[in-house]
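Would you mind giving me a polypeptide sequence along with per-residue C-alpha cells?
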Amino acid sequence: MGFFPRPAEGAAAEAGALPAGRTGEALGAWIAASDGVELEGVYLGDGGAMEGRGVGVFAARGGLDEGEAYVSVPWRLVMGTHSLEHSPELAAVMRQLRAEFGADDKSVLLLILLHERFVSHHDSPWRDYLMARPPVKIVCSS
C-alpha cells in the first residue's frame, strides 16, 4: 500500500505546476537548479478548502496510476545525516557531539536543518527550497 496524493477540490492544475507567488518562485528556482527533480502526475499547490493551509503535493489533471512514481528527487538532494559532507565545520561539530553524547540521527538532522536554514543559507544547496518554506515560529512554554 503506498501513499497517493489526494486531488484538491476542483483540481485542474497540470503536472509540474507550482503555487503562485514567492513560494512557487522559490520552489521553481530550486527545482530548476537541482538537476533530476521531477514532478510526474502531480502539482505543488495550496490545498484550498480541503487542506486549509500550506503547500502540498496533489494529483494533477489525469490523476495517477497505482504504483506510479510521482515525485523524483536524487539522493544527493535529500537532506539527511549524509549531508554533513557539504559543511566541514558542521561535520566537525557533529563528530564532537556524537563523541560526547552518542549517536542520535534525529538530533543531527535537526541541527543540520537549523544550520542550513539560518547559518549557511547564503550558500546552501537547499537555499531556494528552504526559502519557500513558511517562517519558523518558535514557541517556548514553561
About this structure: The chain has two domains: 21-75, 79-123.
